[in-house]
Amino acid sequence: MEALAPIGGRRYGSGDYMSEKHGPYHRLGEPGGPGCQVMVLPISFKDPEGEKKEGELLDAGDKASEIELLRTVAARAGVTWGHDEFGWWAVMPKKQTGLWTVWRQDDNGNKFMVEGNLTEDNAKQLAHDLESTGHKQTYWVEKE
């Protein structure tokens, strides 16, 4: 399939990631098949809570199958998989949802972590919400 990269987009060839050997794992086997070439378009969308998010639309065109597109999506997410005598397996990297922490300081000067591993926007919103409760404690956000 011949795909043209849009302005500002990137093009990924089939099998670039999945053809590499990975390991060591406790399971054996090879990836389940080829991916496909995709055009990558930067987009904005709303999540289920209605918040605007930035993302990418992967366009595989009309020649790729659904399974080839799913293999490509999995590979871009860092997932490797295979099949061995025990069945199918997959290895996924741990996902970090953010790198910000909300802290509070009480009336005696003691500092406590309220919540960590947040996006910057979520951390700022949480600190704002906590400060608006009327308590005399101080809340702030720090990058982890």
Short descriptors:
144 residues; alpha+beta; 2 domains; three-stranded antiparallel β-sheet; 2 helices; elongated; disordered N terminus
Structural class comes to: alpha+beta
Strand content: 25-35%
Strand order of the largest sheet: 1-2-3
Count the helices. How many? 2
Radius of gyration equals: 22 Å
SSE order, one letter for each helix or strand: EEEHEEEEHE
Oligomer: single chain
Helix coverage percent of residues?
10-25%
**Count of distinct structural domains:** 2
Q: Tell me how many strands there are.
A: 8
Which word captures the global form? Answer: elongated
Q: Could you name the ranges where pLDDT drops below 50 across 5 or more consecutive residues?
A: 1-27
**What distance lies between the first and last C-alpha atoms, to the nearest angstrom?**
43 Å
Largest sheet: 3 strands, antiparallel
Instruction: Give the overall average pLDDT.
Output: 75
Condensed summary:
The chain has helices spanning 66-76, 120-131, and strands at residues 10-12, 38-46, 52-59, 80-84, 87-91, 100-105, 111-118, 138-143.
Please describe the topology of this protein.
Layout lengths: L9 E3 L25 E9 L5 E8 L6 H11 L3 E5 L2 E5 L8 E6 L5 E8 L1 H12 L6 E6 L1
Antiparallel strand pairs: 1-2, 2-3, 4-5, 6-7, 6-8
Describe what you observe in this structure.
The chain has two domains: 10-91, no CATH class; 100-143. Helix content is 16%, strand content 35%. The protein contains two helices and eight strands. The chain has helices spanning 66-76, 120-131; strands at 10-12, 38-46, 52-59, 80-84, 87-91, 100-105, 111-118, 138-143. The strands form three sheets. It has a three-stranded antiparallel sheet with strand order 1-2-3. The protein has a three-stranded antiparallel sheet with strand order 7-6-8, with helices on one face. A two-stranded antiparallel sheet has the order 4-5. The radius of gyration is 22 Å and the shape is elongated. Mean pLDDT is 75; it is low at 1-27.
